[in-house]
Amino acid sequence: MFLVDSRPIPSGLDLNQRAGPGAARSVCWSATRDEHCSSARPKYPKSMPRIADILTQASGPTLSVEFFPPKTPVGDANLQQTIEDLRAVPLSFVSVTYGAGGSTRDRTRDLVVDINEHESYPAMAHLTCIGHTKPELEALLDDYDRAGVHNILALAGDPPADGSPADGDFTYALELVELVRARGDHFSVSVAAHPELHPRSQDTKGDRLHLAQKLSVADFGITQFFFSAPDYFRMVDELSALGCDTPILPGIMPLTNPEGVRRMAKMSGATVPEDLAVRVEGAGSADEAQAIAVEAALELSQELLNGGAPGLHLYGLNKSEIVLRLVDQLNLL
Ligand code: FAD
Fold it and tell me: What's residue 160's pLDDT?
């Protein structure tokens, strides 16, 4: 799952606002920040833990959340509030989406750096390779390295929707994983996995072979959203049969907005459970609809954890309420 918008803005951080985890600060990654925010970046960035190490050392399931860089003042305020709300939750890390081709490059970068500087958990930067030249990707990674960001989700991204050939030097995520790996062990690299197959894959065997190859050089995977635990365990078993046991975090998307999820599922190849969608849509109130969606996400999460999933990656759409309810009911607090 990923959500992005397409309005680039200049990059920068407010050095004067640096403080310990959880400290209040101005929003320097936002679409509306003041000029003064772009004046300076931290000279000596806080060194953040590698998520690979967090996963290895975790004594129980990890909990992580995906954010996307907002594009409106309301979106900025919502995300800032969400980050504050989620301080009540033991997050292992968060990840921040990237607009394929670089449309959110600076805002993704600044949001990741800002979270790394101010929160108690690391933020991982999504990065797509389609549409970028190798020197562009190297410059981005250099920049992250300097800023103390060493957690990257290496993705292919999607080729142009009109079918025209994609620019750039790379075609597949594996090439980006190798580029990041070549920079040294201080980077942790993760990759995307699709339990129900990637929508561009012609067959299960080819898809799993490519995924196994990619995962074998990465530290961990994160899945696209899905709604059936057997789909996840089938993928894990098929990869294991190919000799690949790299941990894969299941991505959980509560079905609070069936119409929006149906739209995203068309692009990602996920199957939306129509019986659940119809129940959510037929609910008598927004509260009832949310309760139905959270209950279903809870059941899926519990089934995944009971079956040995190493953690949960929640697609909370920059909102805290559902994440807090899920975490509370899963007894992860
Ligand atoms: P790849 O692993 O390269 O696979 C793409 C396709 O190519 C698959 O069908 C695969 O089987 C095939 N393939 C791989 N290697 C080969 C080979 N050697 N020969 C032939 N075929 C091959 N997109 C964004 O733009 N921004 C984001 O922030 C973002 N975040 C995401 C986060 C998660 C957790 C997930 C699951 C997806 C995300 N995406 C994002 C979407 C992703 O970019 C798309 O799904 C994209 O189409 C494929 O990316 P990939 O990294 O899985 O590609």
Answer: 84
